Amino acid sequence: MAAASPKTALVVGGGFAGLAAAQVLTEQGLEVLLVEQGRGLGGRMCTRTATVPGTGERLTFDHGCQYLTARSPQWDAALERLRAAGAVAAWETGGRVGTAALTADDALDLASFSADKGKELLVGCPTNSAVGRALATAAGPRLTTLTGTRVSGLAWDGSAWRARAGRPPVLSLRVTPGRAGSAGGAGDEAAGSTAGSPASSVDEKEREREEVLAGLESRTFDLVITAMSSVSTAKLLGGGNGNGGGNGGGNGGGNGSVPLAADVAAAASAVRANVCWAVLVALKRKLDLPFDGALLSRPDPSGGPLPQYGAIAWLGRDSTKPGRPRVAGGAGEAWVLHGGPGWSNDRAAAAPEAVARELLGELAKLAQTELLPERDVLHIEAHRWNNAYPLNPRPPVPPPPGSRAAELGPGVLGLGPGGPGLGGFYMLRADMALAACGDWAKGPRAGDAYVSGWEAAHALLASV
Ligand SMILES: Cc1cc2nc3c(=O)[nH]c(=O)nc-3n(C[C@H](O)[C@H](O)[C@H](O)COP(=O)(O)OP(=O)(O)OC[C@H]3O[C@@H](n4cnc5c(N)ncnc54)[C@H](O)[C@@H]3O)c2cc1C
After folding, report:
1. Of the candidates 22, 39, 63, 453, which lies 20 to 30 Å from 327 by C-alpha distance?
2. Domain with CATH 3.50.50.60 in the chain
3. What are the pLDDT digits (tens) for 82-139?
């Protein structure tokens, strides 16, 4: 039986879904602990930094989510708050971001480029990793975040939750091909970045983190919201995390045998995700391409409705985003290349060096130039997204008529008289004060993840 008036909540996952859920909960007066296994907040919206050996030049690459666009009232309100806080700004592309067609042999049909003029593209400032930090700040002082920590088990004893957590052995998958990797430094920009902080405040932060982690297993929570990819959700709630459940008795998840919420785990595991290889490359010179970002596809030759992708599905001139560092004193540029879904899935087990080499060759082919690593490349590395996008997101299941969640109709949830109600983009286990959310429960965009988290928190609060 869940607490009649919940006071504490645990949110697992610090991407858009988890941060949206955390803000709804803190606004309703709950004390929230958000645990994120990565070094920073923001999930798949994040940034890698690298240092060029010899010169010490700092490079940044937004290697995941590229930009944010308006999609729904909840999300649009969040974007406006982020803009007001200076955490996002428009990527002023002058009509230089859009779509272009590939020919049958994967060459670029330059004449086909069509700019996406209708929508504003918002990017993080000074980089995309700022967005997660800003969303956490917006949730206020009732939110505590614990990064670099993986929840390995949860246990529900019939009235409260306990969690087991620890430091993941590897904080993030980082793969850097030989030359750049041996000499340059690179890493994810972390939330609450300590760059520039005096050593004493870094130590202080680390001490606080250790204290929260040490106290975690003796704490109980009235509510839990999981906000992870479909694969991680299925693992944690389906009993496949391998590290044992929490301290409490009752229904323990993550012990490899007892599913904690079998229905949620089954629904999450039905959502497939694809691999996406990202190659981050800084060039010493500029490429003669008539756009700063393009989604590349070709029509299905058999006349089917879905476009087909080649080796590179997206390429973006990252250094043209606002506030990004100049490359090679302005003579060069930073590019982010995303491998096409089929291409990336076929190379899921490939060596990063090979992937980086191959996509550099594909970039040269698209730009009809020669790119020689020694002559033209300042830095190159490859990053594999294992669960990049949900391919078949779970269809919504609106709250049953007559339920308290169904009563949260337009105008009730604080976004004005015409504001949204709950569309059912989450999974709820009211009997165990649990909700699950993430982009897999709505769609493949950041705004979908945000709405899923926002709805999950409102639905859970309405159900206990
Ligand atoms: C290459 C790429 C490009 C994209 N481009 C765009 C774009 O341009 N525009 C757009 O709108 N969308 C884009 N997307 C999609 C968008 O990034 C995602 O839909 C969105 O970020 C998903 O948010 P989420 O909160 O559901 O999941 P995530 O961002 O994945 O957050 C889940 C978090 O849970 C953490 N976690 C997992 N397991 C545990 C555990 N056991 N304990 C603690 N923490 C855990 C993970 O580390 C992760 O940070 C892109 C995605 C990718 C991969």
Report:
1. 39
2. 1-39+147-172+212-243+258-271+392-463
3. 999 999 999 987 889 999 999 888 899 989 999 988 889 999 999 999 999 999 999 9
Amino acid identity of residue 158, one-letter, is G
The token duo for 34 is 């958000």
Q: What is the dihedral of CA 24, 28, 31, 36, to 10 degrees?
A: 0
Considering the domain 58-130+274-391 in this protein, what is its CATH number? 3.90.660.10
Spacing, Cα 21 to ligand 1 middle (Å): 14
- Whose CA is closest to 227, among 2, 450, 420, 388? 450
Nearest CA residue ID for atom 31, ligand 1: 15
CA angle 282, 283, 284 (to 5 degrees): 125
Please tell me the number of Cα atoms within 13 Å of 183 on its side-chain side. Answer: 11
Share of the chain above pLDDT 70, in %: 88
pLDDT number for residue 198: 59
Residues of the chain with pLDDT under 70: 1-4, 169-202, 240-257
**CA-closest residue to ligand 1 atom 13:** 65
Domain with CATH 3.90.660.10 in the chain: 58-130+274-391
Top mutation candidate among 228, 274, 309 for ligand 1, by most atoms within 8 Å of CB: 228
Is the minimum distance from the CB of 235 to ligand 1 under 6 angstroms?
A: no
Residues 6+ apart with CB under 8 A from 337: 278, 279, 280, 281, 312, 314, 315, 359, 362, 363
Instruction: Indicate if ligand 1 lies below 6 Å from the C-beta of 177.
Output: no
Distance (angstroms) between ligand 1 centre and the Cα of 440 equals 10
